[in-house]
Fold:
Amino acid sequence: MKSTEAGTGRSLSAGSRLQMAYRVFKGAFFFGRKGLVIWDSWEMWVMQIFITPIAQMGFFAFLSVYLRYPLSETQFIVIGNALQAMSFSAVFAVANITSQDKWQGTLPSTMVTPANRVALFIGRAWFQVLLSALIAAAGLLYAATIFGVSFANADYLGIAAVVMLTAIAMTTFGLLISAVGLYMRTALIVANVFLFVTLLLSGVNFPVSVLPGWLQPVSWAIPLTYGTEAVREAIAGTSLLGLLPLLGWEALDALLVMVAGYAVFAGFESLARRTGRFEEY
Structure:
C-alpha cells in the first residue's frame, strides 16, 4: 500500500516512507541535541552526569549503613541506584517534551506538521538515551571506586549492553508519559509518581521477591526491573550470552511500552484536538 507525499500528490513506497522517517528522526535528534547544549550551561551537564548518581547512591547507601545492613546488601542497593539514577534523564526529560512545547507555544505547530510523529518524538528523545547511559556509567564508576563494589569478574560487554538497553527502555516510558502531556497541563506529575514506583518496585533497593505476590507482576512490567537484575549478574561475572534471556524480556517490555505509548499519543492527540487542550499550559 502506498501513501501520498504531503503537498505534492505523489505516492510514496514503503522504502521512501522509511527514508523520510529516518530524515525526520535525524533532524529531530540533532535539533534536540543542539538546543539542549546551547540552552543548558556546562554546570548543568556536570551535575546531571556526575552529581545526580552520587547523591542518590550516597543517600541510600548511608541509610543502609545506619540500619546496619551487611556490606553485601549495601552494595546491592548501590548498584541498583547507579542504574536507576538514569531515570531523571530518561523519564523526566523525555516526559517533559510535550509540556515544554506547550510552554514555548510550539506544540500546535509541531502537531500540524506532516512529519512522521513516531520518528519526530523518538528523535527528540534519543539524545536523552545517550545522556542516561552516561549517568548510569558514572554511577557504576562510583560503585567501584567509592562504595567498594568488586568488578574483578565483571563482563564489561554485558554491562554496556544492559546500560544501553535500559536507557532505551526507560526512555520509552518517558515517551508514554509525554503522550499524556498532550492533554494534561504537565506530564511531570505522572513522571514524579513513576520515579517513586521504580524505587519501590524495580528491585533497586531490595529484591522483587520480597514484594507481596500481587505486586510482583507490576514490578516485572517495568523495564528497569530486568535491567537492575541483569547489571548485578553482569558484575558478578555472567556473560552477555547468559544475560540474553533477561535482555530479551527487557527489550520486549520496552517494545510493548512503545506500542502503548503510540496508542496513548494518538488517543490524546485526538482528544486534545476536539477539546482545544493543545494551547492549555
